[in-house]
Amino acid sequence: MMLSQEQRMQMVLAPQLRQSLELLQLPILELRSLIQQELEKNPTLEELPDTEDEVVPEQGSSEIHGAPDAAPQDTKQMDFTKDFETLARLDDEWRSYFFQEDSSHSYSPEQAEKRQFFMDSLPQKESLQEHLMKQLELSGLSDADRQIGELIIGSINDDGYLTSSIEDIAATAGIDVARMHDVLAIIQEFDPTGIGVRDLKECLLLQLDRLGKTDSLAWQIVKHHLDQLAGRKFQDIARALKVTPEEVQTAAEVVARLDPKPGSACSTEVSTYVLPEVTVQKLEGKYVVMLNDDTLPHLRISNQYRKLMDDGATTAEVKDYVLQRVRSGVFLIKSIQQRQQTLKKIASEIVKTQTEFLDNGLAHLKPLTMAQVADVVGVHETTVSRAVSGKYMTTPGGVFEMKYFFAPGFKTEDGKDISNKSVQDLIAKLVADEDHAHPLSDQDIVSKLREQGVTIARRTAAKYRLVLHIPPSHMRKSY
Fold this sequence. Notes:
- The chain has 23 helices and eight strands.
- The chain has about 475 residues and is of the alpha+beta class.
- The protein has a four-stranded mixed beta sheet with strand order 3-2-5-6, covered by helices on one side. A two-stranded antiparallel ribbon has the order 1-4. Strands 7-8 form a two-stranded antiparallel ribbon.
- Helix 10 (about 200-210) runs antiparallel to helix 11 (about 215-225).
- The longest helix is centred in the C-terminal third of the chain and has 38 residues, at about 315-355.
- Mean pLDDT is about 85; it is low at about 50-80 and about 100-105.
């Protein structure tokens, strides 16, 4: 062990820089929540109503500098006056940013109220347990049997499967196992079909039973050859059951229409709603990029606190506190404005590069890296990564995550650039149009792409096929 000294340079992120980077990375809905929290914590901040025109005092007005005959101010007050000169200029920029004469996304109070109502009206779905409990109440069982039913329903997970064996539940509750099985049989008749089972085989057999297919080939396959069916080993199943592969495939199609997770129909997972940050519209033959600023509160520093600082009766402690809050609010306003400007520059560069994609679809998506956009916009590559993280863009062709437009690519034989997403789209089309009796292998896909001028390795084709959730050729074969 020893002590030593060394001198080195190390980059340390200041708290304000950290906050600025966090604002840049936040999606618009989270940013709106953060702004609301700041409005609650910082008394000097206030939201500017959409219908109100802010009057920004001139730099020579007494509201900022005090009356002409005011007594000389101390150093802190002088610093404060300088801050408010900057603040007045910032307010003007902030106002012009949000209230441009050609703004096409202003909202009337009625429209704003409807929009807020829509955002606050996320429905809560009924859970599987609640759905089963309602049916249990209507089942006509005795109170004792309903209590047993509640125990069983409490042991059913969201997919519809029992998480504990009937024997374990009976032993824990001190109830006869046979009686538990009787109540379970009643619950298995509830909607959705296939709930209250212990494994996948029982789930599928219960659904086939409800469909009246207990004497079918599908029943025999599920009961005795489920593992081979999962591997699409149709010929092995056909030999074992002494039928043709074509009959096995027909039965497999029946099984494929069954629900392996019947409880998912009552899933309580709330759908994820996204609010696009950027809107792209084609006006007069050109694509125009617009930011979705209407959902963000328009902030300003309250005039009440400006006047408080000019009041000679205000104590030094109060002025220090107000000055600290004002500087915090000014930094927040600047950070939001910088965030919006950076996002618009990046979105504009994306649209400029991907114009052909917006016009003609996925086949024309060009390779694009964040480093390329960073060079044009004049920021670091990590800034671009933070700016597009979790952000969405509305285009005439649909809503896309902004990261979707960044993809490496290849050069075709004629020298054109093509993105890997375009190559994946070509593979998906080749598989969709293939002969199901003779599906394309990975090498066949490579050969087909080479005929279209796109050269990739076989392992690349296999990787893209997995990304597209396309099974290998032997599992796509039909008889």
